[in-house]
Amino acid sequence: EALALxxxxxxxxxxxxxxxxxxxxxxxPGVSKxxxxxxxxxxxxxEPEEVLAVGDGLxxxxxxxxxxxxxxxxxxxxxxxxxxxxxxxxxxxxGWTRIVDLVAACR
Length: 107
Description:
The chain is of the alpha/beta class.
């Protein structure tokens, strides 16, 4: 949930034990990871249903909700896990190798 909304921008402070005590996300109005992915898809004639998105943080939730396949990372924030259809282990546990299987299954 946004800590502050200033001129349409959002500021989110969240617990981040892996990189210190807290993380901070500042987003301009209407900008998210998904808006970037969606713009790329539009330029390359890719449908949102064809996108596999991976996320573990609050800033990943819009992307996970809009992508055709949503993959959460175990240990991520509960909201990102809830927005995911699949779960993988974190990179330190070689979770990224599971993505190859998910891509193959989606074809």
